[in-house]
Amino acid sequence: MRIALGADHRGSSSIRQVADMLARDGHQVEILGDQSGQPCDYPEPAFAVGKAISEKRADLGVLLCGTGIGMSIAANKVKGVRAAVAHDELTAQLSRSHNDSNVLCLSADLLGQRLIEKIVSTWLGTEFSGGRHARRIHKIMAIEQGKDPASVQE
Fold first, then answer.
1. What is the DSSP string of 82-133?
2. Which residue of 81, 94, 95, 140 could cross-link 101, Cys pair, CB 3.0 to 4.6 Å?
3. Residues forming beta bridges with residue 64, ordered by sequence position
């Protein structure tokens, strides 16, 4: 799987470790943006990863910042991105199975590295369950197109 990664300065160390784990697991990994640890504004890596998803250069993305919240807000501005903040394995699993998230946003400050890696693994190992959830994803896509989600019946 092609996975785009990004982080601001608060998540730069953690994202490099996630990249190593994913590469060991056989994924094609690309870290986007400056990971020197110097101050970085989170919208920049969020946009870079979101754009990689939108342009289909990556299948999924993982973003880390202090809380994961800013990354999620910024990444969700890119058309086609469904970024979700996860705080544990359950929220990661549900974000994929129910919401078909394609970008995982995590807190570098609130989660330890071991938990970050468990969350990423759980998220990657979870498939979208479809069914009634597919209709809801179609409604999200309608909103992206400026349409009323109530108009979507499928």
1. -EEE-SSHHHHHHHHHTT--SEEEEETTTS-HHHHHHHHHHHHT-----THH
2. 95
3. 7, 106
Closest CA to 59 of 129, 124, 137, 134: 124
Whether 98 is catalytic is yes
Tokens 């943006």 correspond to what residue?
33
Return the domain boundaries, the chain.
2-128
Q: Which amino acid is at 54?
A: S
Domain 2-128 has CATH 3.40.50.720: no
Residue 51 in contact with residue 72, Cβ under 8 Å? Answer: no
Q: Is 40 a catalytic residue?
A: no
Tally of residues, the chain: 154
How does pLDDT run across 95-136, given as a tens digit for each residue?
Answer: 999 999 999 999 999 999 999 999 999 999 999 988 889 888
Catalytic residue among 9, 27, 40, 65: 65
pLDDT in tens, 55-74: 999 999 999 999 999 999 99
